[in-house]
Amino acid sequence: MILFVGAGPGDVELITVKGMKALQEADCVIYAGSLVNPKLIDTYCKEDVIIYNSAKMDLDEVIEVMVEMEKDNKKVVRLHTGDPSIYGAIREQMDRLIEHKIEFDVIPGVSSFVAAASRLKEEFTLPDVSQTIIITRLPGRTGHGEGGQLEELAKHRASMAIFLSVQSIGEVMVKLRKSYEARTPVAVVYKATWDDEKIVRGTLEDIEKKVEEASITRFAQILIGDFMSDKYSLSKLYDKGFSHMYRTAVSSEER
């Protein structure tokens, strides 16, 4: 059995309990060394665990290790950063395991975009502000399949989390300014929840300069949207005058 495990955003306590137990029982861990906090392995794995850093491996080499470990009845954890379903490149690995008739499962993790929001102490979805979150990135070498360029997605003016793009912060801002107002809040969170985390706040007008001054060129989330401003409506969920299946509204006369 191969377990694909979401390592979480960096803080060793932000892996799920199920993911932690998988690491504790693993005979072999293949981890994304360029992104996963190695303290996870030091904290949770057995002393005799076999470790592979996939940053130095290609797909064939990763699968070869999995196949050999499976032949020896070893428990293998493929440790991915954040949640493996977001920019995790796990589909190609799972398809290869199917070809080899090797069973696998996926344990989700805390994605860096929600970790970034937690460090900013912000809420992506606010009444009368935004009820939609767009997760995207600049195309880069992987291209794009849905036909949605960043400037097209920006037309929705939803809350947005942009992965893997801070190295091109200037290009990102140019594309976003075509739809978002210039004073729209932007935050860049470098290595959210890590010990060396950095947070830079600004607007579409000034965030590029601030990010350059902070020397942030990778490992960062770009968050944009009015969810980081001060104007929003209160939720109906806790409104005294709103009824739902668990509570009856209080009339204006009773208040």
TrEMBL record:
Keywords linked to the UniProt accession: Cobalamin biosynthesis, Methyltransferase, S-adenosyl-L-methionine, Transferase
> Where on the tree of life does the source sit, at the highest rank?
Bacteria
Report the coiled-coil segments. Answer: none
Q: Which InterPro entries match?
A: 4pyrrol_Mease, 4pyrrol_Methylase_sf, 4pyrrole_Mease_sub1, 4pyrrole_Mease_sub2, Cbl_synth_CobM/CibF, Siro_Cobalamin_biosynth, Uropor_MeTrfase_CS
Q: In which pathway does it act?
A: Cofactor biosynthesis; adenosylcobalamin biosynthesis
What is the uppermost EC class here? transferase
Which EC number(s) does the record attach to this protein?
Answer: 2.1.1.133
- Please list the residue ranges annotated as the Tetrapyrrole methylase domain: 1-207
What Gene3D superfamilies does UniProt report for this protein, alphabetically? Cobalt-precorrin-4 Transmethylase, Domain 1 (3.40.1010.10), Methyltransferase, Cobalt-precorrin-4 Transmethylase, Domain 2 (3.30.950.10)
Q: Which Pfam families match?
A: TP_methylase
- Return one Gene Ontology term, BP aspect: methylation
Q: Does the keyword S-adenosyl-L-methionine apply?
A: yes
GO MF terms here are: precorrin-4 C11-methyltransferase activity
Q: Which family does it belong to?
A: Belongs to the precorrin methyltransferase family.
Question: What is the name of the protein in this document?
Answer: Precorrin-4 C(11)-methyltransferase
**What gene is this protein a product of?**
cobM
